[in-house]
Amino acid sequence: MKKNEIWFYISLIVLLTTIILLLTGSSLLTFALDKEDSIPLGSFITWAGLISLPLTLYWGIKELRNPTTKAYGYLAKTIKIVILIAVLWVPISYLLAGNLSFNFSEKASFQGGQIAMKWFWGLSFGIPVATLLTLIIHSMIRLLKHKN
């Protein structure tokens, strides 16, 4: 088995495990990592899933690692940016929320307030949406290649 296949399967397993834990509402998500119960394991499980989603695409599609056309060059850059944003999700989210539980309130200040919450949700949904758009564009390119 090649190195990229191993990374693909590792990413896929992490992604599927994360999806299952999130969909089932597993008690692991609320397991506290500190004595004050302020850092839930779910934050890091979600982080692993957000990183593994674009990585699964990156390792699963050869053209995203070694682009052969200009279009794939753009897609490769896009997925690398998405991976970088996914890696930075926890630090950015912490700066937005002011805590690792990613709780927001009706504060007047930015950090932990409603505007920061909107940025948090945009970031959290943006990673999977950008990944899925990359997959859709890749699928359209493949479909057009096969028709010609």
Output the keywords.
globular
Structure overview:
With 148 residues, the protein is an all-alpha fold. It has one domain (3-147). It contains six helices and no strands. Helix 5 runs antiparallel to helix 6 (114-147). It is globular, with a radius of gyration of 18 Å. The relative contact order is 0.11.
Care to give the gist of this entry?
The chain is mostly helical and about 150 residues long. It has helices at about 5-25, 40-60, 60-65, 70-85, 90-95, 115-145.
Gap between N and C termini: 32 Å
Total helices: the number is 6
Q: Can you tell me the number of structural domains?
A: 1
Order of helices and strands: HHHHHH
Q: Let me know the largest β-sheet.
A: none
Report the strand count: 0
- Categorize the overall geometry: globular
Helicity, as a percent range: over 70%
In terms of per-residue confidence, which ranges show pLDDT below 50 for 5 or more consecutive residues?
none
Mean pLDDT: 95
Residue fraction in strands: under 5%
